[in-house]
Specification:
This protein is of the alpha/beta class. Helix content is 59%, strand content 11%. It has a 5-stranded parallel sheet with strand order 2-1-3-4-5, with helices on both faces. The chain has a 5-stranded mixed sheet with strand order 7-8-6-9-10, with helices on both faces.
Length: 532
């Protein structure tokens, strides 16, 4: 998402622009709404802003001063001017500095959208031209390194290419590590966004790892970042490697706001055998399901704590889902007890097995909350801390009691939240449940209820905990999933059935919410039915 800052001293213009279009649909996010140039300057100084939409005449610092200030910095921000009929001389002055367009008030929706589309295209073209040369080199180097760790390159070709690419394979010992990106962070509107994300991650890791002379990060064919550690005494630097990988997690979390999971293979004494370390790191990647993201896991540790006991929880999870929806706490308790009872009968449960089962139940609880169109943040402030608590239990009794407390807390809070909703918002939600398949949005719904769109949007977000558009999208996708299970509709028919005129936008929203495209989801459903 590219960030947009809007500055205008007229409240109606400021609020109206925020609600005029679906910013997210165009890959944009409003980073701030301010009423004067000085506040805008402060946000620009402290944040990464991509587009500034600014009025010319404002208190404390006008739009021309603001643009001149930003132009002197190294920030690559695109400017869109809002002007009145008497501001043409100011517009000419701003045009000399460089603006994308000037829009006369009141702003025309189509002209604003067209300007934003052109501006986003310009931003993306600049990004890719800037990185084109470096990426070309990286692609060649990454290809050779991937073929090395996968054991798919001849000795002669490797010798020729490593000399050209300045890759040192004269070290005595090698270790492969793989960074897996959270799937939720790879559901952007285009593969280009994902490519930029990986490129930025690779740069962060390169600065940390290469500066210490520990190894080389590169991309494998699966899109994961691989780190090839090398050295003459790596066995003495294992602690340093572990600390370095944790630093990578911290930096990536802080700078890119994404979650990752890092696995590490065993040490090998020759680059000819580095493919073994790579396979080991690849093999244990699924452990993120147990540990969660933002962890470093070594192969030997994963093998020591491997889970030998498995149970089929499919039917139990269906029962748990139904009980949670109906708020039947006694049935929820019974299902949780039965699941762990099955684990006991299948064999002596170890901590890894308990953690895996508990994590699955937690995922089911929070997935049900989302399907009920509630924000999980209203139930618990920090889901990461909650899931990390799973690893703190070693006895079956403690685990079961904790999960019961979690479900009871969830139901109590959801009951309380239901009572907080005003009669108006209840009517709006009922309206959405009945009319989600129509071409509706915040404006049309507000009109049907004879309300101001900004007022309804503000009230809806305040009571429901998320923007109107997010709620409507989740509702539509939930209905789409139900229709997919029926299996008779094509994707374009499915999109229209749940209220999306633009099929491509439907695909984008579906993947963002579910992590899969409609086609992929259908395949999963079909596979599930065949297994039954």
């Amino acid at each position: 998402m590219y960030k947009v800052l809007i500055a205008d001293d007229e409240p109606l213009i400021l609020e109206g622009l925020a609600d005029l279009i679906n910013w997210e649909e165009h890959g944009l996010q409003i980073a701030g709404l301010v009423s004067n140039g000085l506040d805008a300057k402060n946000i620009v100084d402290s944040s990464d802003i991509n587009i500034l939409i600014t009025d010319i005449r404002m208190p404390r610092m006008d739009g021309i001063e603001l643009i001149k200030y930003i132009a002197q910095t190294e920030k690559n921000i695109k400017f869109i001017i809002l002007s009145g009929y008497n501001d043409f001389e100011y517009v000419k002055e701003a045009a000399k500095i460089g603006i994308e367009n000037y829009l006369l008030k009141p702003v025309d929706e189509k002209e604003l959208i067209s300007t934003l589309i052109n501006t986003v295209d310009k931003i993306e073209n600049e990004i890719y031209k800037k990185k084109e040369l470096q990426q070309g080199y990286n692609i060649l180097r990454d290809n050779i390194l991937f073929r090395l760790v996968s054991g798919d390159i001849s000795g002669q070709e490797l010798k020729e290419k490593v000399n050209f690419l300045n890759i040192n394979l004269k070290q005595v010992q090698y270790i492969c590590s793989i960074i897996k990106i959270s799937s939720k962070d790879l559901t952007g509107p285009s593969s280009r966004d994902r490519s930029v994300l990986r490129f930025d991650m690779q740069n962060i890791c390169s600065r940390i790892i290469e500066d210490r002379g520990l190894g080389i990060p590169f991309l494998d064919m699966g899109g994961d970042i691989v780190i090839l550690f090398s050295g003459n005494h790596l066995e003495e630097r294992i602690t340093e490697i572990r600390q370095t990988l944790w630093e990578c997690i911290e930096k990536i979390n802080t700078l890119l706001k994404i979650d990752i999971f890092i696995t590490v293979g065993n040490l090998e004494k020759d680059y000819h055998f580095v493919c073994k370390s790579y396979r080991q790191a690849k093999t244990i990647q699924d452990n993120y399901l147990i540990l969660g993201y933002n962890h470093v896991l070594f192969y030997e540790e994963a093998i020591e704590s491997s889970q030998p006991t498995f149970i089929d929880m499919k039917d139990d999870l269906v029962l748990l889902n139904d009980a949670l929806k109906s708020r039947n706490i006694s049935t929820v308790y019974t299902v949780i007890e039965d699941i762990f009872s099955q684990l006991n009968h299948a064999g002596k449960p170890n901590p890894a097995a308990l953690h895996s089962i508990a994590t699955t139940i937690l995922f089911q609880i929070f997935n049900t909350i989302r399907l009920l169109n509630y924000n999980t943040n209203m139930v618990f402030d920090d889901l990461k801390d909650l899931f990390s608590n799973v690893n703190k239990f070693e006895s079956l009794e403690d685990m079961v009691n904790w999960l019961k407390e979690i479900t009871l807390t969830c139901m109590d809070i959801l009951d309380t939240e239901d009572k907080k909703r005003s009669p108006l918002i209840r009517k709006v939600i009922s309206y959405l449940n009945s009319n989600y398949s129509m071409d509706i949005n915040l404006k049309t719904v507000a009109s049907d209820f004879d309300l101001n769109a900004f007022y309804l949007g503000h009230l809806f977000k305040k009571e429901i905990g998320e923007p109107f558009t997010n709620y409507l999208n989740k509702l539509r996708i939930k209905r789409a999933i139900e229709l997919i299970k029926d299996g008779r509709l094509k994707n374009n028919e499915l999109a229209k059935k749940v209220g999306y005129i633009n099929t491509n936008y439907f695909f984008t929203v579906f993947k963002k919410i579910t992590g899969m495209s409609p086609t992929e989801y259908k395949e999963v459903e079909l596979h599930s039915k065949l297994k039954k």
